[in-house]
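User: Reviewer 2 asked us to show a designed sequence for the structure in our supplementary figure. I'm pasting the structure tokens here. Could you produce the per-position amino acids so we can include them in the response letter?
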């Protein structure tokens, strides 16, 4: 039995029932195909924005920064799982076509300002706050159409990282990041 589920209202009851488990992959593939059909012209994308100062001033290694971005990206998908765009983005037939843009801002002030703009604009996102230090390290958007998200990121630049050893007086990143 093939069900064409293109709306959130139709998809959620199916996913909530144990009988629907067998049909989940099929329903998700069909939803993904419907939403990803627009991908050629306006792809689903997830933006991840890192703080440049964590590397340059605090001496965080690239791996710690990648971990922070990964935390934020997974949290954004998990927190917005019920949206059709999010489901389509991670559907089995779309998983190899994911598009992410990893950008950077100068520091905490700029990251908080960007988070505020996203909030005001209604763009679903997660501001990742590292614990137990309790400071924001990055943010990630929930998957959405590029045309919807791109205007928020015009002042950000693509991230480019360099060797931390070249930075004098660098501190270590918190353990377990």
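Assistant: Here is a per-position design you can include in the supplement:
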């Amino acid at each position: 039995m093939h069900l064409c589920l293109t709306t959130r209202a139709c998809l959620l009851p199916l996913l909530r029932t144990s009988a629907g488990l067998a049909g989940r992959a099929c329903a998700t593939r069909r939803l993904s195909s419907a939403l990803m059909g627009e991908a050629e012209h306006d792809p689903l994308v997830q933006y991840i924005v890192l703080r440049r100062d964590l590397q340059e001033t605090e001496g965080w290694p690239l791996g710690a920064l990648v971990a922070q971005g990964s935390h934020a990206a997974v949290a954004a998908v998990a927190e917005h799982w019920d949206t059709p765009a999010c489901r389509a983005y991670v559907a089995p037939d779309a998983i190899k076509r994911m598009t992410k843009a990893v950008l950077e801002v100068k520091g905490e002030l700029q990251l908080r300002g960007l988070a505020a703009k996203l909030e005001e604009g209604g763009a679903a996102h997660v501001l990742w706050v590292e614990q137990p230090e309790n400071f924001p390290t990055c943010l990630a958007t929930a998957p959405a159409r590029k045309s919807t998200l791109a205007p928020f990121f015009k002042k950000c630049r693509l991230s480019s990282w360099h060797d931390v050893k070249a930075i004098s007086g660098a501190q270590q990143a918190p353990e377990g990041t």
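For the response letter, you might also mention the following. Strands lie at 44-51, 100-105, 125-130, 135-141, 144-145, 157-158. Residues 42-161 form a domain with the Bit1 fold (CATH 3.40.1490.10).
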